[in-house]
Amino acid sequence: DYGERLEEFEARIARGEKIEPGDWMPAEYRRQLIRMISQHAHSEWVGMLPEGAWITRAPSLRRKLILLAKVQDEAGHGQYLYHAAETLGITREEMVEALLSGKAKYSNIFNYPTLTWADVAIIGWLVDGMAIKNQTMLAQCSYGPYSRAMVRICAEETFHHKQGKEAVLLYAKGSPKQRRMVQDALNRWWWPTLMMAGPHDTDSPHTPLLLRWGIKTKTNDQIRQEFLNEHVPELLDAGLSIPDPDLRYDEKTGNWIHGPIPWDEFWKVIGGEGPMNRHRLEARRRAHEEGRWVREAMEAYAKRRLAQAAD
Ligand code: BYC
């Protein structure tokens, strides 16, 4: 019966076993994973847009090649994640429909504009830095297909993170104009990046169950703290200033403590009212329409191949 199955399921997770697609799982485990993995996949795809906007304006061939490779990686991450979600019994079409209709969420961070080239550098270092903290944790998660997708994604994200850091450090010791640009980018991306880890644990309704079933292995505040402890000293060493007057180092715990996060802005952005939400969804809808003929051609080709194989 359900009680026994649940007990066995939880015992497997406690032993560190991975849950695989055909295995028994509570309906709520399935629902939570579909929610998280599909939102994650949407974030990868919407996440191509702010950086993609700079491909034609990259300042050198080297930077253009790096950016092209990065944006292409993100398309690939979306693919692995949509496939991982499909193993739970939802179709790609249902997920894409939820994104395009505005029903599904995606990361708050991609609803801000990329105003200068330095934004691309800051996204690489900070946004990908936060993503890696979150995804290294998810690589340990109890659902096999998600955890394996995360291992590969983290390896690629590490390259993204390094190229962002390299660029920020270069601009931080560059001309006065470069220094102004990179500082301005940091000022604008700092708070949205801290919000990426999700609301404080006290305001995070999903965390307790996700922890219990090993979908998350750390809380939102733990991830945010790891991000701060790594990045704050490095940003300060680079001669940049962090736009948080209350930021301080706590000797006792060895943690960097941030001031109040503007959560009103977060809830507005994830509710669809951020500066670029409308624009991002329009771009995804347009891409979906413009790609329709490719999907139809592939389907027709696959059907013909199948018919030929049957002959
Ligand atoms: N943005 O109970 P909570 C990337 C929502 S892509 C938007 O704490 P949970 C990259 C949350 O969904 C990075 N919404 O939720 C790509 C929930 O609403 P619903 C994307 C957020 O699930 C391209 C409500 O707030 N990574 O790195 O326990 C280029 C309550 O929150 C956000 C992932 O998606 C947010 N930031 O924890 C470069 C990782 N935070 O669903 C880089 C997978 C919270 O009830 N997801 N909400 O309507 C996760 O790890 C977790 O879902 C979160 C949130 C930590 C994000």
TrEMBL record:
Molecular function (GO) terms listed? phenylacetyl-CoA 1,2-epoxidase activity
- Any one GO CC term of the record: cytosol
Note the SUPFAM superfamilies from the entry. Answer: Ferritin-like (SSF47240)
For this entry, list what GO says about its biological process. Answer: phenylacetate catabolic process
Q: Which domain of life is it from?
A: Bacteria
Give the matching InterPro entries: Aromatic_CoA_ox/epox (IPR052703), Ferritin-like (IPR012347), Ferritin-like_SF (IPR009078), PaaA (IPR011881), PaaA_PaaC (IPR007814)
Q: Which Gene3D superfamilies does the entry link to?
A: 1.20.1260.10
Question: PANTHER family, per this entry?
Answer: 1,2-PHENYLACETYL-COA EPOXIDASE, SUBUNIT A, PHENYLACETIC ACID DEGRADATION PROTEIN PAA
**Which protein is depicted?**
Phenylacetic acid degradation protein paaA
